[in-house]
Amino acid sequence: MTFAFSPPKRTLVIIFLAVTALIFLLSTQAMATMFGLFKKYDVHLSPEVHGVITKEGKPVVGLTVFRGLTYGDDKELVDKTSTDNEGRFSFEEKNIRSRKPGSMFDESSIRQTIDVDYQGEKYILWYTEAIGIEPNKALTERLAKLYCDLNNSQDEFEFNSYEYPQAGYLVHSICRW
Question: What is the DSSP letter of 134?
Fold first, then answer.
């Protein structure tokens, strides 16, 4: 088999192709980094939650409270706690790290649910979809003081957003503030 290039020229062509491939890979890496494809971002899923659960004004003791948090199409993160002798419960603030915010096509929202099962019936203490990856002041204010009576009707509440004035939050809940 004959080659179009002599051995010294063939070596130069191979070196040239290798250098070109290396430059391409490095520039692609730089572009990916520049657009944040490999960078991880802090995503605020939920602030601290503090609430009280009552039935006809009396504390419901030992009730298991579930919180589910989902960012975009990721797997739901679920944690649980129990009400104390005064019907109080709380959850810690929850943050994750994700590459999604670096994508120019990312429009993910954060889904927050807090619910309980009491005597075979499910009660929605909190359900909303939040926008953005930073803490939301309006949601933080309300989640700091949930007063939930199991006799309350589940209603929809609309809150203005401090961070995104053009948007608001729609919350489904039996709780009041």
Answer: S
Whether residues 78 and 25 fall in one domain: no
Question: Which residues face 116 on adjacent strands?
Answer: 65, 123
Task: Look up the domain containing 156 and give its range.
Answer: 41-176
β-pair partners for 42: 97
Q: Which of 110, 112, 158 is nearest to 131 (CA)?
A: 110
90 and 18 assigned to the same domain:
no
Q: Determine the Cα–Cα distance for residues 111 and 144; give it in Å rounded to an integer.
A: 17
Q: What is the mean pLDDT of each run of 10 residues along the chain (177 residues)?
A: 67 81 63 61 95 97 98 93 98 93 81 97 96 91 98 95 86 97
Regarding pTM above 0.90, the answer is: no
**Cβ–Cβ under 8 Å, residues 139 and 164:** no
